[in-house]
Amino acid sequence: MVTYAASSKVFFRAFKETLVGHLAGVSGMLAGFVIVWQLDLFHQSAWAVAVYPTVLTAMSVISGLFSGRLNTALHIGTVYPRFSGNIGTFYNLFQPVLATTLTTSVMMSVFSMLFGSLFWGLAFANFAEILIIVVATMSLGLIVYPFVLAITFTVFKKGLDLDSVACPIITAIADLLVTICYVLSLILFFNLGISGRYLVSFFAILPAILVLFTLPRNVHKKEFTKPIVESLLALTLMAFITNITGSVLQRIGAAANGRKEVLIAYPAMIEVVGDVGLVVSSTATTRLALGLLKPSFSAIRKHVAPTWGAWMASASMFIYFSALSLMLTGAFSLCTFSIFACMMLVSNVIAILAIVLISYALAILTFHKGLDADHFVIPVESSLAGVITSIALLAALLLIG
Question: What is the b/e burial string over 53-88, where b = at least 16 CB atoms within 10 angstroms of the residue's CB?
Answer without folding.
Answer: bbbbbbbbbbbbbbbbbbbebbeeeebeeeeeebee
